[in-house]
Amino acid sequence: MYYFKLKKIKISFTLLFIFILSLCIFMLGCNSTVPADELGLVAPDEETVAPDFTLSTLSNTEVTLSQLQGKPVILNFWHLGCAPCITEMPYLNAASKDYSDKITILTINANDSRENIKDFFADTEQYFIVAIDLDKQASSAYGIRFFPVTFFIDSQGIVRYFKLGEFANENNLRESIDKLLKED
Asked: What's 37-183's CATH class?
C-alpha cells in the first residue's frame, strides 16, 4: 500500500513539473517579441514620414521609395569600404529572400561606382534592391554620417525605427523585421 502512495505522489510531481514547464514554454513562446532597445533599434521622437527619393539601381532601373508603400521597407545605407556593412550583406540577402512576400529590402550604396558594386555582387544571387546614391540625394535626406545605418519603414511610409551600426547576427536582423511586421 505504501508503495502505491509513493508511486502516486511521484506521478503527481512529474505531472506538475511537466505542466509548469509547458506553461513556461508557452508564455515564452507567446511573448517572444524582443524590446526595440535590446535589438539596438531606436524609435524616432516623433512620427516621421520617410523622406522620398528616386535613385538608379544596380540593375539599371529606377526605384522611388514612395512607390514601395504597401509593404514595409528595410532601408540600409552602406558602402564597400565599411567592414560592418559587408558583414551584414548576407543577413540582408537571406532575409530578403525569406521575407520577400512581406517586406522590401532596399540597400543604398553611397560611395562606390556602379562597376565596383557590380564586381562585389558578381558571384552572389541578390534578393534585395541595390540603389546607387553617388550624388548623396538620399543620404542627405536621411542625415547619414556613419555606416551602416538601417531604417525600418512601415507599409504607410512612416519611419518606425532606425539602427546605427551593424546587426549582431542574422537573427538580430530577423527579430527586428518581425518587430516591424508585428507593429505594422
From this structure: alpha beta
